[in-house]
Amino acid sequence: MNKELKELAEQAGMECSLGHWYITDTNLERFYEDAVIEGMAKQMHSSVDRAVNTMGKEWVGLTDDEMLKTLIEIDSETVRLPIGFKLFACAIEAKLKEKNND
After folding, report:
1. DSSP 8-class letter at 20
2. How far apart are CA 79 and CA 83, in angstroms?
3. Please, are residues 65 and 57 in contact by the beta-carbon 8 Å criterion?
4. What are 54-88's pLDDT values in tens digits?
5. Do both 13 and 49 map to the same domain?
6. Are residues 47 and 68 in the same domain?
7. What is the DSSP letter of 101?
């Protein structure tokens, strides 16, 4: 290892032995450990939040009026909700409900 690199590493509180870098400054080591632990805690908290939020939600389907408004957004000439469209929309909702409750 070149001398300049070794001096910089020592100033940073690190050393290289057998091709691996080690933290020699105990304050820096504690800082690194704390940062890793904090990151893991945030990740676990986020996972728990997502799980709790999805478990507590009750499925809410679309009303006939919402289906009609959605169809009008696609086809502005629509004046009523065709039964075929309603059956198709309900079938999609049922599949989504099934997938989200597994």
Report:
1. E
2. 13
3. no
4. 666 677 788 899 989 999 998 889 888 888 888 88
5. yes
6. no
7. T
| 20 phi, psi to nearest 5 deg | -115, 140
CA distance linking residue 25 with residue 10, whole number of Å: 9
Is the domain of 35 the same as that of 73? no
Contacts of 71 (CB under 8 A, 6+ apart): 78, 81, 85
Q: Residues 6 or more apart from 86 whose CB is under 8 A from it? A: 64, 67
For the record, the structure tokens of 12 come out as 């940073």
Q: What is the pTM of this model?
A: 0.43
- 68 and 47 fall within a common domain: no
What's the number of domains the chain is made of? 2
Burial class (CB in 10 A: 0-12, 13-18, 19+), 70: middle
DSSP letters spanning 43-82: HHHHHHHHHHHHHTPPP----HHHHHHHHHHH-TT--S--
Q: Could you tell me the residue range of the domain that residue 29 belongs to?
A: 3-55
